[in-house]
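Recall the central idea of this unit: under ordinary conditions, the amino acid sequence of a chain determines the structure it adopts. In this exercise we apply that idea directly, starting from the sequence alone.
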Amino acid sequence: MLPLDGTTVVALEQAVAAPFATRQLADLGARVIKVERPGEGDFSRGYDRTVHGDSSYFVWLNRGKESIELDIKDESDRRVLDAIVDAADVVIQNLVPGAVERLGLDAATLRAARPELVHCSISGYGPDGPYRTKKAYDLLIQCEAGLVDATGSEDEPCKVGISVADIATGMYAYSGILSALLQRATHGVGATVEVAMIDALAEWMVQPAYHAVYGGSATRRTGARHAFIAPYGPYATGDGNQVFLGVQSDREWVRLCREVLGRPELALDPRFARNPERVVNDHLITPLIESAFAPHDADGVIALLDGAGLACARLRRPAEILTHPQLVARDRWRPVRAPGGMVQALLPPVTIAGQEPVLGAVPRLGEHNDTLRAEFGS
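Accordingly, the structure predicted from this sequence is:
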């Protein structure tokens, strides 16, 4: 018995944000019915062909769902959709601004007939305000939220390498839906849930905004180094590799000076004793650390830092995640069927003792057309 067994979710979704939210619901046992455009489907199916001929985005985001092709403007298909919605506990949508209102699938319309329904809408900029009708994609939200300006090198701003605005939004939608389902279980009424991408990423950007506004200085771009904590970032080792080190407190700085640098006097040096001064003088700290690392290869530096109880990491490539020794040792991967073949899927980060999440197959476009039409209509 999984937490969402018996819960039906209708997903009028595309791209990343809403599919990421509904995939979490599917992993917890919900039945997720994904409504797709006939012949084309969710446009993320066409982003690439790297996973046995299928899109890496689609395979990642859509396991465990049922796919039905429906032309919502066709009367017969609309009757099928209405029947599915009538049986749903949750409706989630991230269509272009204004689309669900024109189709009569908005929260006000659906919940007027069924107050117990949980309706979640994901948008770029929210339902009102001057930006309400603008299209929004991940990179554009990263720009508007100030993330691109805070990322990259001193000479050039840079986007984050993953769809971070979409992922943040999807996770807030997921937690909002769970909260609404809990409210319904307690009080018997559903909820209208709104999640805007700009809100989700702006929340993540409040700390650098505070630092800039109340500190009176522009946000610095520091590449792979931390803009507000030092020493924190990559350092060269004797074999030409890099090891990342993170010192989070003044106590850890003292330990680094004594046990790794062999320079205990630096712990009390006024240029370095407290983090704000270390950030200002980070350019002086880097050669001290790299001098101490120079006699060792990367493995030796990791062993040295681990022995001192200091946080450190290797710089790994994304492909190495599938063979990461910690994930492998903890048995975090499961085989999942995708349309073109089997793939390794990561278990959800949240584990519940005694429960194995459902990691269902990734559907072909319209794979469940016949069964869902037989169940819900014509």
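The first helix runs from residue 17 to 27.
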